[in-house]
Amino acid sequence: MTTLAVIGKDVPKRDGAEKVTGRTRYLHDLELPRLAHGKILRSRHPHACIVRIDTSRAAALPGVLAVLTGAEVEQHPFGFVKDQLALKTEKVRCVRDEVAAVAAESAAIAEAALELIEVEYEELPAVFDPRAAVRPGAPLVHEERPTNHTDLRYQFSHGDVERAFAEAAAVVEGEFRLNFVTPACLGTMVAIADWDPEGRLTMWSTTQVPFLYQRDLAQALGISGDRIRVLQPPVGGNFGRGLDLYPIDVIAALLARRARRPVKIEFERVEEFIACPTREPCTIRLRTAADAEGRLLARDCHVVIDNGAYVSWGSTTPYVMLSTVAGLYRCPAVRFDTTIAYTNNPYSGSMRGYGNLESTFAVESQMDEVADRLGLDRLEIRRRNVTRSGDVNPQGFVVTSCAMSECLDAVAGAVAQGLPAVESGWRRGVGYAGMFHVGGGARIYRSDGCGAIVKLDDFGRVSLLTGATEIGQGSETVLAMIVAETLGIPLDRVDVVNSDTAIKPWDVGAHASRTTFIAGNAARLAAEKLRGQLLAMAVDELEAPAERLRTAEGWIFVSDEPERRIAYDRAARAGHLRERGQTLVAEAFYDPPTEMLDKDLRGNVSATYGFAAQAAVLDVETATGLIRVRRIVSAHDVGRALNPLAAEGQIHGGIHMGLGYALSERLVVQAGQILTASFMDYAVLKADDMPELVVRLIESGESEGPFGAKGLGESGVIPVSAAVANAVKDATGVRFTELPITPAAVHAALASRSVRA
To answer: What is the pLDDT of residue 251?
Structure first.
């Protein structure tokens, strides 16, 4: 690829120094004049009628400014299918449910007021298992519905599945169980609401989708969206948590309107474990068929999802699960179905990888099982089925650039170099897994676009106003790099503005690994327009037509006479100060050439697709079941690494999250209650727990991407649990089909095998 001035260089994240020196002001740090503090009272029961709420003692407490219940305020249904209210009125459906809220002069007073609210409940029979929930006679979570089936169902069929299984040389089948996990963000959920005297609302939020949030919040409050302004301070982690509107946002606005003061609601850590959206629990039943050479013939998959009490983004993850079942390696026949059931458990949201971790765990486990059944090498079976450029998968996904073969070769070459010998009493295992994910956005809305405005001032400073949301992934840095490269100016002359819906152009939000690709293309297009304006301003000064002019390193010069040049900021000033001058501003909106899935779940949803391969090397202590991960090798087809340093950092963070999912993290929910509500009992891996990480960035050059790039944000986390499970099987001979794979589970399995032997 052509060497460029800015693109392809290692650039530290722009907000890095602010964060490590403690100068960053997160939303938790924000204080406003006359700021009040809100607290939410939640249900004690997973399913109960609300008989009576008495808030009189709380309202009389000195320092209390407002007390609200659902019966006292106008509110409107919200959520993915509009099935919940922020403050529940007649009954509660899970322990997360909000029954009252208080605003007070301090958080301590608000907390004390909650203790004074009396709620009388009449407990109802509850259901916590999604399979039991859809049986006749099960307690109804939403009594207005005939059953606990949600209206969501994902069904897909392509090819002759039954014939493929009948003619297969190898058929494997199994059931894989994935439990609740929580994002465990460093910053807990928080919102600040403030109404002005004209009835306009300003919300400070950590949302990832500010314009959709603006629309949904307006509907929940019964006002028009133009009356809401959304400000986005730096976030302390999101990982998909900020993709929806939640009761905390609506309640903050309701309290602020009643108190006539700005109100902040921020979760304590225990409340975060209880009320934060989780990764959805699910069960995947999968069958895989292959011929004698190990080429895949068919997959047949059924997914059961615990929807919880309300439909949120977690229940839409089969959208991506299907994509993995149908698209991870070449598979000519596919059948997919789902059962998504209301229960009285907490509901789940979007979380990094969005269903792909779950289905990849099942699919890649069975790739190893098919290889074992046929006596094939585990990497070889993947090479024989690898996706290639030009493929069109059963859903109609069109594969443009693809370097999956190169990713497999890269992990194979680095997996065992220089590892220490296996200690006595331990067994070593190596596991592999591939990854397939959207890399050019995902058209789940009618538009998947993003706007950009680029402005150049008298002093040569460029401002990029982007619709893209920075959630810690480094998008501000890479977007600035794209603008600097396009304009041919130093990177340090570019600023990025992206935190205010009153200023920034529209964007659908930060999800589906889309920001670099979608927002990057928008920024590039706007910068190209601005460069054209800038060159036109330099025509008179350089006495050459615009088509002969170029920009580089902050200069505008004649292409065949580079000594004839002027500084770019001089040209800008000349344009501003001359008669009939003009401002140097350009805008663009990029909407990728994709389509939404049709009713049969077919359509090319992404402009390009990302691929990766991982290898996990680990040791298992046979006496205790302890797992020590030695090395993770992760090779990614990134199209082009715009900022290799940041790309590697993204992959490192994804691997850390994936290892927690594989080995330690589980939010324990029993009878609807959260039992792991602190970091004492929810086991997030620490820095010392991390193995050696080897990252390989494979550049395939995506023609539609900005400077050849693809999206990368989620790909690091997706294959980890599958590679680890395959490595544990290689070490112990035991196939684990439930996550996390804990030492206790390994010890029990090894002990059981020993007894049987």
So the answer is: 98
Task: Provide the CB-side half-sphere exposure for 743 (13 A, CA).
Answer: 12
Q: Where do the domains of the chain lie?
A: 27-124+184-275, 282-442+597-756, 449-590
Q: What angle do CA 525, 644, 460 make, to 5 degrees?
A: 45
Question: Counting Cβ atoms within 10 Å, is residue 599 exposed (0-12), middle (13-18) or buried (19+)?
Answer: exposed
pLDDT block averages, 10 residues each, the chain of length 757: 92 92 95 97 98 98 98 94 96 98 98 98 98 98 97 97 98 98 96 97 97 97 97 93 96 98 98 96 98 98 98 93 98 98 97 96 98 98 98 98 98 90 96 97 91 95 96 94 98 96 96 95 98 93 94 95 94 77 91 95 97 98 97 98 97 97 98 96 94 97 97 96 98 98 97 73
| Cβ–Cβ < 8 Å for 247, 79 | no
Give the integer Cα–Cα distance in Å for 4 and 703: 16
Q: Alpha-carbon distance 577 to 218, whole Å?
A: 44
Sheet with 494-497, strands from edge to edge, namely 494-497, 462-466, 450-456, 584-590
**Domain 282-442+597-756: CATH class, spelled out:** alpha beta
Across 273-316, where does the E strand assignment appear?
282-290, 296-308
Q: Is the dihedral of CA 286, 287, 292, 296 positive or negative?
A: negative
Cα–Cα distance measured from residue 126 to residue 690, given in angstroms and rounded to the nearest whole number: 40
Mind spelling out the 3-state secondary structure of 700-735?
A: CCCCCCHHHCCCCCCCCCCCHHHHHHHHHHHHHCCC
Q: Where do we find the tokens 């225990």?
A: 270
Q: 70: which DSSP letter?
A: G
pTM to 2 decimals? 0.96
Instruction: Check residue 755 and give its pLDDT.
Output: 64
Place of tokens 């000519």: 332
Q: Name the architecture of domain 449-590.
A: 2-Layer Sandwich (3.30)
Contact 658, 739 (CB under 8 A): no
- Residue 281 to residue 306: CA distance in whole angstroms: 6
- Measured in degrees and rounded to the nearest 5, phi and psi for residue 34 equal 60, 30
Spatial contact of 92 and 47, defined as CB atoms under 8 Å apart: yes
Collect all residues with Cβ–Cβ distance below 8 Å to 575 and sequence separation of at least 6: 533, 534, 537, 581, 582, 584
Cβ-contact 528, 538 below 8 angstroms? no
Same CATH topology for 282-442+597-756 and 449-590: the answer is yes
- Rounded CA separation 169/371 (Å): 11
User: How many Å apart are CA 651 and CA 636, to the nearest integer?
Assistant: 9
Instruction: Give the span between the Cα atoms of 523 and 536, in whole angstroms.
Output: 20
Condensed to tens digits (0 to 9), the pLDDT of residues 698-712 reads 999 999 999 999 999
The angle formed by the CA atoms of residues 715, 720 and 725, to the nearest 5 degrees, is 150
Q: What is the CATH code of the structural domain delimited by 27-124+184-275? A: 3.90.1170.50
Query: On the CB side of 477, how many CA atoms lie within 13 Å of its CA?
Result: 21
Q: Report how far residue 336's alpha carbon sits from residue 156's, in angstroms, rounded to the nearest whole number.
A: 5
How far apart (Å, rounded) are the C-alpha atoms in residues 543 and 547?
A: 12
